[in-house]
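My hope is that you will study the protein record below before we discuss the fold together.
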Amino acid sequence: MIINYLITNIEANRDKEIAPDTQIGVEHSLNIIDVEKDERFKILKFSSKFEAKFTGNSKEIGKISVQALVVYTGDNLDKVFSTWQESKNLDKSVREEVLQASLNISILEAMSIAKILQLPSILPLPQVPKASEEDESKHEKKQKK
C-alpha cells in the first residue's frame, strides 16, 4: 500500500528558438532507480525517474525530468526488497501499484512544466469530434426553429 509520495528533483530545459512549423515529437520513460528499506518504520522507499524528451527537426529541443519518492508498506517488504537486490526488478506484487503512483505524480508535474516552457502536452488531450455534414444540417435546422 502506498502511504506517501514526494517529488525530489525537477530539471527542465527548452531550446530558446523553435521554428513555428516544427513538428514536435514526445517520448517518455519511467524507471525505478533504487529501493531502500527502512526497518524502523517498516517501509520501502522507491526512487523513480520520469523523463520526457521533445524532438523536432531530428534533434532534441526540450527535456523534462522528474524524480520522485514513493513510500510503500505491506506484508511482503522482505520479498520485494530481496527481489530488487537480486535482479533490480520490482516484485510483481507491487510493480503496478508503485509504477502507477510514480507515473501519476511525475506526469502531472511534467505536464505543468511543459505548459510553462511552451512545449506540447506530454499526453494527447481529448479532442472534440468533428461533426459530419448531416449533424451540421440538423443543428442548423434546430437553430432556425
Q: What stands out?
A: The longest helix spans residues 92-116. The chain is about 35% helix and 40% strand. The radius of gyration is 22 Å.
